[in-house]
Design brief:
It contains six helices and no strands. It is elongated. By secondary structure, it is mostly helical. The longest helix is centred in the middle third of the chain and has 21 residues, at 48-68.
C-alpha cells in the first residue's frame, strides 16, 4: 500500500485536525464537559457524555482510516454527518466566519466536508478524468 499518493497532503492535514480536535479533550475533561454542558443541555440527556465520547473516538478512528487508507468512505461519511450536525446545532447560528467577520461560524466545517469528499472520491474522479482524456485521444486518432 502506498501511503503517499495524490491525497496524502490533504489526508495528513485532516488527520492533524481530527486528532487535535479530539485527543486533548480526552485528557482535560473537555469531552465530558461537551457532553454535560452542551449535549445534555440541548436535549440529549442523559446520553450527552457517551455521545460526546463517540464523536471524539470517531474522529480518532477516521484519522487512522485516513492514515492507512482503509474504510475511508465509511469513516469520511460518518465524520461528514458529525460535521453537518455541528453546523446545524452550533455553527449555523453564528454565521459563516470562524474568525474575522464573525466567530464560531460554519466555514471550517464546510471546508473539512469538501476536503473529505475529495479524499473519499479521488480515485473515482481521477478515473473519470483519465477515461475522458483517453476517449478523446482515441477518437482523434481514429
Amino acid at each position: 500500500m502506498n501511503m503517499i499518493n495524490s491525497t496524502f497532503l490533504l489526508r495528513f492535514a485532516v488527520i492533524v485536525i481530527l486528532l487535535a480536535h479530539s485527543v486533548p479533550g480526552m485528557f482535560d475533561n473537555g469531552i465530558n464537559d461537551f457532553g454535560n454542558l452542551y449535549l445534555n443541555q440541548v436535549g440529549f440527556a442523559p446520553a450527552g457524555v457517551p455521545i460526546a465520547w463517540a464523536i471524539k473516538l470517531s474522529h480518532v478512528l477516521c484519522a487512522l482510516c485516513l492514515l492507512f487508507q482503509k474504510y475511508v468512505k465509511w469513516a469520511g461519511g460518518i465524520t461528514i454527518l458529525i460535521l453537518l450536525a455541528g453546523i446545524v446545532m452550533v455553527h449555523f447560528k453564528e454565521g459563516w466566519f470562524v474568525v474575522g467577520g464573525g466567530r464560531n461560524g460554519v466555514e471550517f466545517n464546510f471546508l473539512l466536508i469538501f476536503v473529505l469528499l475529495t479524499i473519499m472520491f479521488s480515485t473515482e474522479l481521477s478515473n473519470r478524468v483519465s477515461n475522458r482524456v483517453s476517449n478523446r485521444v482515441s477518437n482523434r486518432v481514429k
